[in-house]
Amino acid sequence: MLRLLRYLRPYWWQAILLVLLTGAQVYATLQLPALMAKIINEGIVVGNTDYIWKTGGLMILLAICSALCSLAAGFLSAKVGAYFVKDLREDIYKKIMLLNTSDLEKFSTASLINRTTNDTNQVQQTIVMMLSLMLHAPLFCIISLGMAISTAPDMSWIIALGVVTVLGSIIMIMSLVIPKFKVFQTLVDRITLITRENLTGLKVIRAFDNEKLEKAKFKKTNDRLTKLLIFIDRILELQNPIINIVLNGLTLLCTFIGITLLSKDFAYLGNMTAFAQYVTFVMISFLMLSILFVMLPRANVSASRINELLKSEPRVHWKTKTLGVPEKTASVEFKKVEFKYPDAEEKVLENISFVAKAGQTTAFIGSTGSGKSTLINLVPRFYEPTAGEILVNGISTSDYNKDDLMKRIGLVPQKGILFSGSVKSNIKFGAPNATDEQVVEAAKIAQADDFIKKLPDGYNSHIAQGGTNVSGGQKQRISIARAICKNPDVYIFDDSFSALDMKTDAKLREALRPIVTESVVLIVAQRVSTIKNADQIIVLDNGKIVGKGTHRELLNKCSVYKSIVKSQLSDKEFEQELKEAHA
User: Fold this and answer.
1) Same structural domain for residues 229 and 289?
2) Is residue 427 within 8 Å of residue 458, measured between CB atoms?
3) Which one, 50, 382, 466, 558, has the greatest CB density within 10 A?
4) Domain count, the chain
5) Domain end position, chosen among 286, 311, 336
6) What is the pLDDT of residues 63-95, one digit of tens each?
7) Rounded distance, CA 342 to CA 383, Å?
C-alpha cells in the first residue's frame, strides 16, 4: 500500500491544506468540552450569566468553524482520492498495453479486469478514508487523552482500561479476517472468469445443453464467496457492539466515580462533564481507527495485486529508436530461429530459416500443433525467439522501435476481432488518416463492400463490442479490409480465410494480388486450395521445416505435404494433382 502513495505526490499542496484543515477541526472540536466545563464551574455554579453567554457564543463559533473545516476536508480528500485512482488506473492500463502476449499469460483476463476496476476502487476508498481519518483520528485520540488526564487526573485509569479493551478486541478481529481477504480477491477473480467465459461461449454451452453444468460451476464458486463474506462480515460486525459496550461502560464508570468525587468537591462537576466527553472522543477515535483497520488489510491485498502487475517487466524490450535504416524493399527473413514457451521443456520451433521477399506469397501449412501460428506471431514480437534472429526489411526485429515495426505489419488474426464503433472506424483502426475512398477500396478488395452497403447505415453502421452483430465471415472480411487499408510492408494472414467460402476466398486472393506487389505476404492456412498458388510453401511438422517449395515441387518431394493434400481431396482429384505436378 505504501508504494502506491507515490501517486499522491502531484497533489502535495492539497494534502498540506487537508492537514491544516483537519488540525483546525480537531482543535475547534476539542475546545468545546473544556469551555463547557468552564461554563459549569465559572458560570452556572456561581450564577455568572454574562460569562455563560460569552463562553456559549464562543462555543457556537468554534462549532461552526469545526463544521466548515470538516466539510472542506471531506471535499479535498474526495478530490485527491479521485485523482489518485485516475492516475493509478492510467498507469495500470499503460502497463497492460506494454505487456506482450507471453507476459499476459501470467495474469488471467478476469484478474486484469479486476485489478483495473475492483482493486483500484478498494484502494481509492481506503485512500479517501486515510486522508479523512488517518490524521484526524490519532490527533483526536492523543489530544483527547491529554486533555482528559489534565482535566481529571484522578479518573485517567478509566481511559487506560477502555483503550486496552478496545485494542485487544481489534487485534483479535483483525487476526481472524486478514488471511481471508486474499482468498476473497481470488474468488472474485474466479467469479469474473466464469461469467466472462460463459458469456463468450454462450452459444456453445447451449448447443451442448450444458447450462446445468455451468450453473453448477458458478454456484460452487459463488457459494464459497458467499460463505467467506458471511464469515468476514460476522467477525467485523463484532467491533461495533464491543466498542459500544466499552463506551457505555466507561460512561457509567465515569458517572459513578464522578458522583463519588462530587460529594467531596461540588466544583468538580464541570471537570467530570468534560472528562466524560473526552472519554467519548477517545472511543470515537478508536471506532474511526477500527474502520481503517478493517479497510487497510483488504486494500493492502488489492495494492499488492496492483503492484505485482505494475512491477512486472515485459519479456520483450523495445528500442527507443530503430537501430539502422530499414531497406525500402520489403522482406522477412528467419535465421535459425528457435522458440519455446516460458517454463516449457520442449521447443515449439526449431532451426527455422527462410526468406520471404516482396511481391511473393509465403505460405505455412502443417498439422495442428506444428507451430504455424507461433511462427508468424514472432514477426510482430508477440513472442521473443529463444534463439536465432528475425529480420524485417533487413533489420532485426529486436532493433526496432515498437511503432516503427508495427506500422510495417498488417495482421489479420485467425479469429476476426472487431471493436465497438462503426464499420468505417474498424477499417480505419490501423490507418486513422485514411480517406473514405481508401476505406471503400480496402473493403472492395476484401470482398466486404457488397454486404456493408446492405447494412442500415452502410459504412457508418454500428458494430457491437466484439462484432457480435455481424457474421463470422463478415467479421473476417472487415478484419482483412483493416489490414489492407493500412498498406503495410508485411501482410500476415493467420488462417484468416477459414471463415470464407471457396468462391469468396478465390475472389479475395485474386483482388489482393495486384496490391501486394511491393509487400511480403505471409499466410497460415489449413486448406491447400488457399495456398496452392503461393510462391513459396513451407511445410512444418513438430516445429521443424520438413518441406519448402511450390505446390508442384512439394508434391514431388515432400511426403508430409503430399499426405495433407491427399487428406483434403478425393482420390480422383489427388491423382490429377499428381499428374499435373509430374508434367
Assistant:
1) yes
2) no
3) 558
4) 3
5) 311
6) 898 889 888 888 888 888 888 888 888 888 888
7) 10
Q: What CA–CA distance (Å, rounded) separates 77 from 85?
A: 12
- Of 311, 336, 364, the residue at which a domain comes to its end is 311
Write out the residue range of the structural domain in which residue 399 sits: 318-408+490-551
**Residue 360: strand, helix, or coil:** coil
238 and 356 part of one domain: no
Give yes or no for a contact between 150 and 33, defined as CB atoms under 8 angstroms apart: no
Separation of CA 219 from chain center: 25
Residue 45 pLDDT greater than 80, yes or no: no
Alpha carbon distance 316, 100 (integer Å): 7
Collapse the DSSP code of 224 into the 3-class scheme (helix H, G, I; strand E, B; otherwise coil) and give the result.
Answer: helix
Q: What is the CB neighbour count within 10 angstroms for residue 382?
A: 16
**CA separation (Å) from 399 to 103, 381, 382, 417, 510?**
20, 11, 15, 29, 35
Which residues 6+ apart lie within 8 Å of 89 measured at CB? Answer: 116, 120
Q: What is the β-pairing status of strands 409-412 and 490-494?
A: parallel
Write out pLDDT tens, residues 484-538. Answer: 999 899 999 988 777 777 788 788 888 888 888 889 999 998 888 888 888 899 9
The pTM score is: 0.70
Distance between CA atoms of 351 and 371, rounded to whole angstroms? 12
76 in any annotated domain: yes
Within a domain: residue 530?
yes
DSSP string, 453-515: HTSTTGGG-EE-GGGTTS-HHHHHHHHHHHHHHH--SEEEEESTTTTS-HHHHHHHHHHHGGG
Closest CA to 159 of 317, 304, 276, 11: 276
**How many other CB atoms sit within 10 Å of the CB of residue 193?**
17
Task: Determine the Cα–Cα distance for residues 576 and 532; give it in Å rounded to an integer.
Answer: 14
